[in-house]
Design a protein that fits this description.
Rossmann fold; single chain; alpha/beta; eight-stranded mixed sheet; 6-phosphogluconate dehydrogenase C-terminal fold
């Protein structure tokens, strides 16, 4: 099987590493950065690299789009008549409703787009920070559409397992984006807000422990990507933020009123819910 990865950044590069370890030798890469392609070839995670997809796309059995969400639809529109017969396309994008319906409508009948979301990544960007170790034991989401063929979904599921993902779940576009707003985007909001709320020039680094370190790890943001993800899932994210604010205010009120009893109840509730995950 010939596999093409479009975008050899931290996730696309990780995919290439995982596929190599799984025994796939016909893995090709596309990236606008020639230095990235050079590194990928030196690492022997791709067989060949290209800066333009029209040089190779018609030969590919599987295409992985590891690109920004605002570029996915444009890629399909540009290449919809160039894909190989019965090719499978998949992606790694963190939001789906932004483009999924449009793509389903314009995609040729003989091409199947199995939308996916690997729930693993890193704070840094670029192939220099790519690793497939983050996939080991991680969650992998498949966002189904009415046009998907069962055998193609299963092929992507099996590929995810070969790459090291453990928990694979199918879901809908709407529920995916609702849950991702809470489990992924909201934590990034909190990390940014916590980091930026610090008073400058007071040597905070000399006072941090695991709590602060763990909570702010993801504050090291790819500003372009995360702006697109936040704004592309605006409704769901704002709802998650409002729900968080309500819980935050409960804790704040307990502290203001010296309400130890209800404060402890909130702690007990969170402990129980966390242990149930």
């Amino acid at each position: 099987m010939k596999i093409l990865i479009v975008g050899l950044g931290v996730i696309g590069g990780g995919y290439a590493m995982a596929l190599k370890e799984a025994g796939y030798s016909e893995v090709y890469g596309i990236d606008t950065n020639e230095e990235t392609l050079k590194k990928a070839k030196e690492m022997k995670i791709i067989k060949e690299g290209f800066t333009r997809e029209d040089e190779i796309i018609s030969e590919m059995d599987l295409i992985v789009l590891a690109i920004y969400p605002n570029l996915v639809k444009d890629f399909i529109v540009k290449n919809k008549n160039k894909f190989k017969e019965n090719a499978i396309i998949t992606d790694v994008t963190g939001i789906k409703q932004l483009f999924i319906n449009d793509i389903v409508e314009i995609l040729p009948q003989n091409i199947d787009f199995v939308f996916a979301h690997p729930m693993a990544g890193r704070e840094n960007k670029g192939i220099d920070y790519a690793t497939n170790k983050v996939f080991q034991g991680a969650n992998f989401l498949i966002v189904e559409t009415k046009k998907n063929k069962e055998e193609n979904i299963r092929q992507i599921e099996n590929l995810a397992k070969e790459m090291g993902f453990k928990h694979i779940k199918r879901t809908t576009p709407a529920f995916h984006d609702e849950m991702i707003a809470f489990t992924s985007q909201l934590p990034h909001v909190l990390a940014v807000a916590l980091t930026n709320s610090d008073i400058e020039n007071r040597n905070t680094g000399e006072f941090i422990g695991d709590s602060y370190r763990d909570l702010t790890r993801i504050a090291n943001m790819n500003e372009k990507l995360w702006s697109l993800l936040f704004l592309g899932n605006k409704k769901n994210l704002l709802e998650a933020m409002n729900n968080f604010e309500a819980e935050f205010d409960k804790i704040k009120k307990c502290i203001e009123e010296n309400d130890e009893k209800n404060l402890q109840k909130l702690f007990i509730k969170s402990t129980i819910r966390r242990e149930q995950l």
